[in-house]
Structures are given as C-alpha cells and as structure tokens.
Amino acid sequence: MKIGVFDSGIGGLTVVKSMLEHSLFEEIIYFGDTARVPYGVKDKNTITRYAIEAVEFFKNFEIDLIVVACNTVSAYALDEMRESSACPVIGVVEAGVLATANALKNKDSNILILGTKATINSKAYENALKTRGYKNLEAKATGLFVPIVEEEIYCGKVLDATLEHYFKEVQKPDAIILGCTHFPLISEPIKNYFSKKILIIHSGDAIVEYLENEFEFTHKYDKPTLKFFASENPDALKAVAAKWLSL
Ligand code: DGL
Hints:
By secondary structure, the chain is an alpha/beta fold. Helix content is about 45%, strand content about 20%. The protein has two domains: about 1-90 and about 205-245, Rossmann fold, CATH 3.40.50.1860; about 95-200, Rossmann fold. It has twelve helices and nine strands. A five-stranded parallel β-sheet has the order 4-3-1-2-9, sandwiched between helices.
C-alpha cells in the first residue's frame, strides 16, 4: 500500500512514526501545510478549503489511501475530502474514539480531551464518545501547546507554566485523549502533571490500530520509501522528520 499522510504542519510526523514502528506501508508521502499552520485557530470554511487542496496535491501520486493526521481537519473536513478524493480518506478522530472505547471499558471513567480550539469547538470527540455511553468528559482547548512543540520546547519553564495555566483547575482524569498530533511530543510532561497512571490516547497509535482492523496487511515493509513535502520551507520539515523519525 502506498499512502498519503496530511497534516497542517509537522505534528502529523508523530503519526508517521507510529506507522513506521509497525512497518505497514511500502511508501508514505507526507504533506505538511507549513505555510498555513496553525489550522486550529481557523474556521470550518478555511480548514475545508485547505483540506481539499491537500486532496488535489495527492492526486499527483498514485496512492491507495489518505490518512488525515490532523485532528482539526478530521473534525471538520473529512466528508468534503472524501467527496473530492478517488481513494479512501480516514481521519484520526474516528480512530481515537475507537481506541478509547477499546482501552477504556468503564463508561464512568473521567476522560480529558485536549485539542486545538477548532477541534474542541467541533465537539467531534465529545459527541462520538457520548454516543458510546461515556458521560464524564472534559474538553479543553490547549492551543499554546502547538507553537511550543513547533519550537521544540519539550521541557522547562515555558512548558511548565503552560501546563499549569491549562490544568490547574482540571480534575485528575483516568484517560487523556491527545486530540492534536503535535501533543505526543509532550505526552510525558502532560501525563506527569497529573500522574503516571493515566491512559494516554495517541492519534498515531490509534490510527495504526484502526488500519490493522480495517485492512489486511500481508507484508511488513521495514524500509518504506518516505517522501516529505511542505507548502513552505520543505527542508525545515525534512530536518524535523530526520530528527523525530531517526532517519
Ligand atoms: N496537528 C493539528 C491537529 O492535530 C494541530 C495543529 C494546528 O493547529 O494546525 O489538530
């Protein structure tokens, strides 16, 4: 299988990392819209327009599947992307909800959903989890984590102050959904702020679980071909990819 992975910027590389750990694909073509990141502060019309442009970009390649490695786009524009794409399009929100339901059998569990302002405003996670019977949900927009990760700040005073700013009045949850693909880079500090025992739902691992359930993978590709594209400064994206993915 040859797939396209789309994110607003570099965050979707955390999804590629999970995919590489499972050797699922022969070729992965990554597109980050680095010229227009962040999407999480934009409205549905803009997010949808950009997402359809990403579908057009992937038409330059013969891919079998598009994985939307951006929660914001998955929350707002998946249907529109599917309408304009010849291949299937899957998103991280649906996968994250399924991973949560598989891992958390107690419907009374307290679940904290983190994401960009747009993702949280969409209520995509909340509505899907409510439909599955979960009722103790707290959703929090934590958009400052996006530039913090883009700046590669993974510890220290700035991050600690931001954690305190967002979480000081939040009850300790049983599970946290990292509803933004930038957040796995700071999952340890987020987890440690509350306690180490919290279940963390990670978009990358969730999509791998989803893909393995939906498709039959007969081969393992230990050395897939990776191609990275960005709407601005592709060399910077490639440098981050080399570092995060240990290429
Ligand atoms: N990676 C995006 C997400 O998963 C967030 C970054 C942005 O705001 O564009 O929602």
